[in-house]
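Q: Mind making up any chain with structure tokens?
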Amino acid sequence: MKEAFNEQLYKKIPINNLILFGIHLVLNKEKECRFEELTKKCFALFPKIFSLHNNPNWPDTRKLDRPLRMLRNKKLIIGNPQDSFSLTSSGKKIALEIANTLTQKRLL
């Protein structure tokens, strides 16, 4: 798995967009994006954002809960934590923009 991105770079990106990017990466590797895999991916790539407050070595699933509901309400994703998540065309567009930002093809 890829190591974490540059903290100074990813801290400037809204958590919702980081989650969209995480879903995109999981879907590129797996057939479906299950909540557990998304949690693992987001924590691995963006540990300062997705870790427990008192234990930075563990992911905090609560940091995904509300943003995932917001993303679904905004029609950027479909699915739920019990099954899996997919990106809508609008969500995929944002995820690709974040990919460009994180790989520094485009400045913030």
